[in-house]
Amino acid sequence: MRFFWLLCGLAIFVIDAGPVSAANNPVKSKPARRSLQTGSMGLVHKEKYAIGFQSTWPAGGLSGQMDINDKLTGQAVLWFACGRNVYAVRGLYSLKKSFTPFKHNFYGFAAVGDYTSPSIDLNGNSTRESVIGFGVGAGVEAAPFEEYPVWFSLEVGASFASFKNNSGFNTIGFGLGAHYRF
Fold it and tell me: Over the stretch 114-161, which tens digit does the pLDDT of each residue have?
């Protein structure tokens, strides 16, 4: 049931952002902008979508991203392996973009997700426990290779969740990611 509500929230978020097109652009003489920009410096990344891998505890797994506007990116993270399941959504807010010495972007993020983990209760029985967790943090993403639209990210953040049998986790963690933008 939690997965259903997470998907509904993501769908409403994406639908509410609406498409960017010349038809609903208030400035008719300019084409619609679907990319991050740095004022007179130009584009940081012109591709609207990305797919890859994100690992920032506890939201680690396969990742899909979509640029909502110049500042906001939505991200879904899914993982189904080793007895653990992750269904998480993240919002990334761009703080500073630059081209020097290579394309990079500083951002803040917030995450919410449903995390399922195997555990052992006090009687020694194996169980699976599922909780809702939250996270906040900051990171930097960079594209060090000019000819390839591959972006790498490094993050630090705080995570909050409470498993009964695993005594929960509230932690400061580091994360890595790699995404191919298209």
Answer: 988 887 777 878 888 888 999 999 999 999 988 889 999 999 999 988
* CB of 87 closer than 8 Å to CB of 112: no
- Give the Cα-Cα-Cα angle 72, 75, 80 (nearest 5 degrees): 170
pTM comes to 0.71
The C-alpha atoms of residue 102 and residue 104 are separated, in whole angstroms, by 6
Please choose, from the candidates 134, 87, 128, 86, the residue with its C-alpha nearest in 3D space to the C-alpha of residue 109. 134
DSSP letter string over 42-65? -BS---SEEEEEEEETTEEEEEEE
| Strands (DSSP E) found in 68-181 | 72-81, 84-98, 103-120, 126-143, 150-161, 169-181
Nearest to 182 by CA among 23, 77, 48: 48
The count of other CB atoms within 10 Å of the CB of residue 85 is 18
Question: Residue 72 and residue 50: Cα distance in Å, rounded?
Answer: 14
The span from the CA of 144 to the CA of 150, in Å, is 8
